[in-house]
Amino acid sequence: MKTIRLSIIGFGAVGQGVANALLHKQDYLESSGINLKVVAISDSHGACIELDGVDLEAALERKKESGSVATSDVMSLKVIRDVDHELVVEATPTNIDDGEPGLTYMLEAFRHGRHVVTSNKGPLALKYNQLCDEAKNNAVHFRYEATVGGAMPILNLAHDALAGNRIIGIEGILNGTCNYILSRMTEEGLSYQHVLGEAQELGYAETNPVYDVEGIDAACKLVILANSIFGMDVTYDDVEVTGITRITPEALTLAGDVGMVIKLIGEVKDGENGVIKVSPKLVPEQHPLAVGGTLNVALLKTDMAGPVCVTGKGAGSMETASAILSDIIAICRNSH
Amino acid sequence: MIVSMDLELKDRPGQLVQALKPLSTFGANIMSVLHQHDQRTPRGAIPVQVVFQLTNGKLNDIIAELENGGVRIVRVGKKLMYEEVTVILIGHIVQSDMGDTIDQIDSTGFAEVVSLSISMPGINEPSSASLVINAVGMSELGKALDILRRVASEKDLLVIEPIEKDQLSVKT
To answer: Which of A81, B64, B113, B136 places its Cα 20 to 30 Å from the Cα of A223?
Structure first.
């Protein structure tokens, strides 16, 4: 049995989802010959460090009751530097301005020879190549499936399952909040403002929705796809972005009259007519990209396999944890 | 230009080749051939329908060559504009002079706006419009869209275009 010691840095919805997933998947992991031992969990208040393995159930309970998992005032950076372990699950919130604190956490983890699995888009959208170089220089793994499309596998699909194919272009819906808003507007003929309010009430949209509705979140994910799958060297500033705030119910009705729906589509295409763009587009109602609700979807155009389409839940605690767990398992299988 | 032709062939071997040869000679791109061998026209001939794309204006040459070869041409139909796209515009469409926006596309000669529906919910609220543009070919349609994008950006209108067509075969 291979034992991998890991830390969970950031204990919000994603970090807790990972802890829950590890609790519930103990048998599955054991039968796969993998023993994952969480030696530290940290949040913004401090950390809980147990070299023999953190009691995950107690940690989740403590977070719920007191608002923090911490049993000591040791901070995240110190955990990454000084606690002996192999893999860091970096699950702090995304910050698109400078990528911090996630960026420093990831770089420090690499410098201390630790693998990193993350769901944090900010650092990758800003410093993708720096992160990859640092991981490579330290001969450790860096995986980030959870940054794009939540549970929907796209990076690993392109890199592993479709290995050998050239990916010509990717188009998709990469933000569940926008998809929810546009779907509801279409179905009910309601105004953008009205549905946004509804989405905020249901917890599908943040109090400050700019990040989602202006297409910034989708653009960050597109940058990760462009760099990771197409080997580009782009950052958020290279993306042409138009959000959904100007979409009217009348426009959706007019689109419906000709059998179309309006979706916020991210597209990235390599080569001469290269594009990297997020904008509202008309999609035929029967098209695989025309998924509703909060779903995400991506259509990969490949040279051998032709078009391949994948859809799934783009957000949520357990869904994101699913992507993180699959990355952790992949590292366990590939590290010696 | 897309041309559809109804031909009548005699029931003899080699007639279909005879009928199609002038098309390839004059650079037509054949899109469809419907050869109904089990049917007969009132004159006892076999009806054949062909549809082809022609970009060099040599339709008269093709017709002459077919007639020289003894192929009877029953009907010729032409369609000049055969690429079409629907786009949605959002903004102050009427105030920003929709007529001018349409003129800029129509004046190209290779593309035209063939349909326009506008929905205006209130006086100071943005309107929405769906616009159908036809063009003589794919690249001309692209140029027409370029014009629309430029004009729309000058007039602060949001243009919503369709996703690319060649993705997956979609059942309709």
So the answer is: A81
